[in-house]
Amino acid sequence: MGMLLMLAAVSTFSLLDASGKRAAQDLPVIEVTWFRFAIHFLIVALVLNPWTSSDSWKMKRPGLQMVRGLFQAGSAGLSFLALSHLAMAQALSIQFTTPILVALLSIVLLGERVAPSRWLAIIIGFAGVVIVSGLWHGIGYVDPAIIYSLGSVTLGAFYIISTRRLAPTESVGSMLLMMGGLPALVLTPMVMFVWETPDNAATWMAVIGVGLFGALGHGLLILAHRYADASALAPVQYAQLIAASIVGFALFGEVPSVSTLVGAVLLVASGFLAARAPSHPKE
Predict the structure, then answer these.
(1) Do residues 100 and 122 make contact, with C-beta atoms less than 8 angstroms apart?
(2) Which of 13, 229, 235, 254 has its CA 20 to 30 A from that of 6?
(3) pLDDT score for 260
């Protein structure tokens, strides 16, 4: 059940990326990002309202919750910006470097020791990024949008580290609410200066999709972790590459390049190694 829910979650995230890519064709990225979090917050607030789920509205560490929400907002905005220039499979392949960066940050910020197998994963993952980004051809061959995707990965890794810090004391509901509410609040003044009202049904469906699929995907992700351990679910996330390739081809006519596929294989391999490496290796 956990694996099926995880498969549904990553497939939903592919629909989120596709919706963001489509919406960014007609609207400013800041506006698309605002829709992502505003609709997410409305959906979660209706389900976890103060009358039926009062604990979800209580926080013990509001400061770190706010920082976490800002990391997620920045990560999502840069991701949508990257998707407006890159093929979905290419952008997603770079996102697979997140476990590698989390492993590096966990050493500095959480004081964790890293097993040799995880260092090997980091090296393999770096090779995958070099291939997917085109860096092996030289700097001149690198699409500048790769920088957006790497920035999204970096902020996403800080988001995961802050989630680890919050998990022992904060409820899942409070983190879901803050994750949607704070970014929407922060982005509202910015959106007022660039607002463009969607002028067709396809764009409206896309902006609604970024919020709906975002909230649904994270809900499925949380349910999946109630049925199975994180180590068992980690490999399932790589099915998102297949889903992204299918959606990218069906909606945008994107065909993954050979370098994207080769780099993705290395990144998936590095992710498997990082997930299976011991979290606390012996001295």
Answers:
(1) yes
(2) 254
(3) 76
More confident call, 94 vs 234: 94
Please provide residue 24's backbone torsions phi and psi, each rounded to the nearest 5 degrees. Answer: -70, -10
Q: What is the pLDDT of residues 49-73, one digit of tens each?
A: 889 888 889 998 999 999 999 998 9
Global pTM reads 0.80
- Alpha carbon 87 to its chain centroid, in Å, reads 16
Q: Residues 43, 105: contact at Cβ < 8 Å?
A: no
Residues 6+ apart with CB under 8 A from 59: 65, 170, 174, 178
Distance CA 164, CA 168 (A): 8
Q: Which two tokens stand for residue 256?
A: 């993954």
Q: Where are the domains of the chain?
A: 2-276
Buried b (16+ CB within 10 A) or exposed e, 229-258: eeeebbebbbbbbebbbebbeeeeebebee
Share in percent of the chain as helix, strand, coil (round to 5): 80, 0, 20
The size of the chain, in residues, is: 283
Q: Where is mean pLDDT largest: 199-208, 211-220, 221-230? A: 199-208
Quote the CA–CA distance of 138 and 165 in Å, as a whole number: 39
Greatest CA separation found in the chain?
61
Name the phi and psi angles at 33, rounded to 5.
-65, -40
CA distances from 194 to 29, 72, 78, 180 (A): 10, 21, 17, 20
Return the closest-CA partner of residue 230 out of 171, 176, 165, 274.
274
Residue 281 has pLDDT above 90, yes or no: no
